[in-house]
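Morning run. Coffee first, then this:
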Amino acid sequence: MKRIFLTIALIFTFATSFGQNAYQQRQTKYFVEAAATEFGLDEAQKTELTELRYEMVAGYAEASKNKKSGAITPEEFKEDTKEISKTFNNGLIKITGKKYPELSPFMARLRKELKTVK
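And here it is:
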């Protein structure tokens, strides 16, 4: 059962990473490197965070696509993105071992910095 789950997770990770454009990949790399520096992450944690970030970006892209096509309402879109953010934040908390109030300044700073990544 664990092997099946791992295989599915790996397939999803590869599909997600190849499905992202270069800009999103640069943003993810920037985010992960900044988090590694800020919180002293090891390689395994960096890999886990990279996968988590790719899942978040893919989730937002899917929600946006569904909203544009009319498959979901704006309210459903808001709920979906809220859940995606919650999942990402909980994963980041787990990876870093920090509580959200400790992560909040980092997240606010990175939101601004990621806008300048080209």
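The chain has one domain: 2-114. Good start to the day.
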